Each structure stands twice: as structure tokens, then as C-alpha cells.
Amino acid sequence: QRRVHGEHSSPMLSRVRTPVSSIVSRLASTAATAASAEPALKAQTATAEKAPRIKTFKIYRWNPEQPNDKPHYDEFKIDLNKCAPMVLDALLKIKNEMDPTLTFRRSCREGVCGSCAMNIDGENTLACIRPIDPTTPMSKILPLPHMYVVKDLVPDLTLFYEQYKSIDPFLRTKGKPTDGKEFKQTINDRRKLDGMYECVLCACCSTSCPSYWWNSDKYLGPAALLQAYRWVADTRDEFTKERLEKLKDPFSVYRCHTIM
Fold first, then answer.
1. Residue 133 CB: number of other CB atoms within 10 A?
2. Helices 221-232 and 158-166, interaxial angle, to 10°?
3. Which terminus has fewer CB within 10 Å in the chain: N or C?
4. 65 — phi, psi (to 5°)?
């Protein structure tokens, strides 16, 4: 009654064995081909990874602790294959790996705080949201123009913030909310503030303005004027007349129209 499996082979089993062995043979041949090609693929990958993409960053330098040294430029070469994509990433790489004395402001890295404002390739912008241009061999980086420099890429923003403070950048009312909790406004009135409240006070616009270059001690500049209007346009504010009176002089606002 008992029969050992495989003792007798049926025609059906013979037909099955042939394709299985053929498949195994093909798989072995494919694996051998892949194994022989693997070194070549690795070599190609290694060559591609090693091909450097060098870019030079020409950076303005000045140190107040060395008054006899005039402002100058230092050049740093970076392999873009080993650097994250933004200009701020390149500056951090230079500071961390090449020259720890390089000085600049930065904070959020998301274009929200405005700290890393500087002039990159002739344009005032934020380094954290400015992509590195891989198509040019060099990028030139300076502090914001027409500002006193604290050190390297750090401008002195004292006057800028004093002007911002002068426009009373906060809600002013003559009484308390009717509900005792908050001053309300309609959805349409709230929409009037769109495009104004988003300003991060990076000073890029003000330091791009010729009138601000020439009369920065009197002319408030685009950033402060934008914020001034932001509170004039706010329907909850009750000091509109007083705000406008403070701006009523030949320089605070109207110097904007005499650039030419």
C-alpha cells in the first residue's frame, strides 16, 4: 500500500520538470549577467558622484575690530554637490567649514523673520529663500546697500526700526470693545489689510529706494510707510487723523514723489 514519492515518474511529472529547470537556468544566467555588469554600474555612479560642481562665492568683509583694514572681498569655493540649495546654506557651510569669523544674521530659514536680508548678485533679497544659481561660476554677496555696516554682512538697522516705531505700529482706540473682549471688523474690512500685514520688515525695499538713500534721516521709506497705511486702513483704529497729521511734512511721505 505504501509507495515512496518519486519511485515512479509519470509523463505529467516529466513535462513539469523540463520548464522548471529551464527557468532556473535562465535565472542563473540573468544573475550572472547582472553580477558582471555591477562593477561597471558602480564605477559609472562613482564617477558621476565625484564630478564636482564648483561655484565661487565672493563675499564682502569688514571687521570694526580691525580699523586699519579696509573693506574687501573674500572668495570661497563650494562644491554644490555637497551643499543644500539656498544661498543661506552656502553661507552656513562657509562659516561652519571654512571661516568661522564670517558674520551674518539668520533665524527662521523660511522667509518669515527677515533676518538674512542681503544683496545677492545685485538684488536685495533673503538668503534663506534665494536658490543658488548653478549656471553661473560666481555669486557676489554684500550687506544691504546704503546702510552702515556692523560687520561683514550685518547692516545697522537702528534707524530703520526707529522709523518703524515712529508710526505707532499697533492698534489705537479711544475706548473699550463693546463686548468687553475684542474689536471686531467685517470680513471685507479685514480683506483691506491683505498685502500689508505680511511685511516681515527685512528692509529690502527701503534699501532699494533712492529717496531713502538720500534722505533716510527724514524720509520714512517704503517699509515704514506701508506699515503706516496698514493702521490707517484698519477700520478698528480710531486715531486715523492723528496718524495722518504725523506724516504731514515735506519728507515723511511726499519725498517718495521727488526721486526724479
1. 14
2. 20
3. N
4. -80, -5
Burial of 59 (0-12, 13-18, 19+ CB in 10 A): buried
CA distance 205 to 203: 6
Q: What is the pTM of this model?
A: 0.77
Query: What string of pLDDT tens digits covers the 260 residues of the chain?
Result: 444 444 444 444 444 455 656 665 666 666 666 666 666 666 566 555 678 999 999 999 999 999 899 999 999 999 999 999 999 999 999 999 999 999 999 999 999 999 999 999 999 999 999 999 999 999 999 999 999 999 999 999 999 999 999 999 999 999 999 888 999 999 999 999 999 999 999 999 999 999 899 888 889 999 999 999 999 999 999 999 999 999 988 888 877 766 54
What three-state secondary structure class fits 199?
coil
What distance lies between CA 6 and its chain's CA centroid?
73
What is the distance between the alpha carbons of residues 76 and 94, in angstroms, rounded to a whole number? 7
Q: Are strands 138-142 and 54-61 parallel, antiparallel or unpaired?
A: parallel
Please give the single-letter amino acid code of residue 87. V
Q: Which of 103, 91, 78, 79 is nearest to 130 (CA)?
A: 91
